[in-house]
Structures are given as structure tokens and as C-alpha cells.
Specification:
Radius of gyration: 16 Å
Distance between the termini: 33 Å
Number of helices: 4
CATH superfamily: MazG-like
Order of helices and strands: HHHH
Structural class: mainly alpha
CATH class: Mainly Alpha
Low-confidence stretches: none
CATH topology: Helix Hairpins
Helix content: 55-70%
Strand content: under 5%
Mean pLDDT: 96
Oligomer: single chain
Largest sheet: none
């Protein structure tokens, strides 16, 4: 599945919950989505918080999916072509010294 199709399916889900409607209790603003993305990323870290053991694969997959969904939504409503942005960043990173 392509990023564009994943993004469309994410928008369909959000719309089905009414979260794009004015007055929604979960307004889908860039600020709120950025906060949600950070929270979900912290939940990935939480799976590793108290040890070096691998988390249960289903739990990790769920949290990574949440991060991905918020990332796709934030990029989309902010007008960022994520595929282009990732490729451009990779190109820049090749030129960096670490």
C-alpha cells in the first residue's frame, strides 16, 4: 500500500468519527496532532522503559501504527508531501558528517 492510500484511509477513519467537524471534542489541528504524535512516540519508548527485553510484538506494532497515523495526518493537513520530504532528507543526510 502506498503512503497516499494509507493517508486516505486514515482521513476516512477520522472523518467517520466526526473529528474534522467544527466543534469536535478532538479538533484535528496541527498543534493537537503534533502533541498526539509526541505522546504516541513516548508510548513506544514506554514499552522499553524498564529493561532491555523486546516488547510483545503486537503491542509494539500497535504503538508504531499510532505514530504512523498521526504522522500521516499531520503531514497531510499541513500540506507536506511526506514521501518527497523523506527522500529529500535522506539526500541531505548523505551529505552530512556525523
Amino acid at each position: 500500500m502506498q503512503l497516499q492510500e494509507l493517508t486516505q484511509r486514515m482521513h476516512e477513519f477520522v472523518e467517520s468519527r466526526g473529528w474534522y467537524r467544527p466543534g469536535s471534542p478532538r479538533p484535528q489541528t496541527p498543534r493537537n496532532l503534533a502533541a498526539s504524535l509526541a505522546i504516541e512516540a513516548a508510548e513506544v519508548l514506554e514499552l522499553y522503559q524498564w529493561g532491555e527485553t523486546q516488547p510483545e510484538p503486537g503491542a509494539l506494532a500497535d504503538e508504531l501504527a499510532d505514530v504512523t497515523l498521526y504522522l500521516l495526518q499531520l503531514a497531510s493537513i499541513s500540506g507536506v508531501d511526506l514521501e518527497t520530504a523523506v527522500l529529500a532528507k535522506l539526500d541531505r543526510n548523505y551529505g552530512r558528517s556525523w
